[in-house]
Specification:
- The chain has 79 residues and is mainly α.
- The protein has six helices and no strands.
- Helix 1 packs antiparallel against helix 3 and helix 2 crosses helix 3.
- The two termini are 21 Å apart.
Length: 79
């Protein structure tokens, strides 16, 4: 995910139920998910989360933020 937009990463993590729930879903440590809030979600994890919880990605993102182009392109190609 785009590291220039930590608000997008935080919004996704919050919609997934928070840091601990997201870590459980991905089978990783909560500390790793906390880093995502600062540095963005790695592309491979975003792809996994989009498959596991597509409902999270159907919602609007925070004002002024944008989905990274590769994620938008992926969403367009799967419809």
């Amino acid at each position: 995910m785009n590291p220039d937009q930590p608000e997008v990463a935080s919004a996704i993590i919050d919609r997934l139920g928070g840091t601990t729930k997201t870590a459980q879903l991905c089978e990783i440590r909560p500390a790793s998910v906390s880093e995502w809030r600062k540095n963005g979600i790695p592309q491979a994890r975003v792809l996994f989360l989009k498959l596991a919880r597509p409902d999270v990605f159907d919602q609007a993102i925070p004002d002024g933020a944008k989905w990274p182009p590769w994620l938008t392109d992926l969403a367009d190609s799967t419809e």
